[in-house]
UniProtKB/TrEMBL annotation:
UniProtKB keywords: Methyltransferase, Transferase
Domain of life: Eukaryota
Lineage start: Eukaryota, Viridiplantae, Streptophyta, Embryophyta, Tracheophyta
Species, as recorded: Thalictrum thalictroides (Rue-anemone)
GO molecular function: methyltransferase activity
GO biological process: methylation
Name of this protein: Arginine methyltransferase NDUFAF7
Amino acid sequence: MSLIASDFSYLPDVSIPGERAPLVSTKKDGKSSDLKSYLDAKGDSDIFFPTDFWLLERIDHYCSGPVSLWKDKSSKKGKKRRTIT
């Protein structure tokens, strides 16, 4: 299984309170504006969630199953994992 993720190098400050709160933005007449709630996004807005790549890596490794580091006959040979950020 492979997980490919990308992220913006910069997002402006988020006006919604909370850890990893989304940025909700809309564009009208060529001008972008940020909304104060994701509930205000009525089909014409973009919602950007900040990405925690460390957490995604942990989830990916956990969901991929255990890799045996022991060399015995009953274990499958595990592949070493790599993560590129």
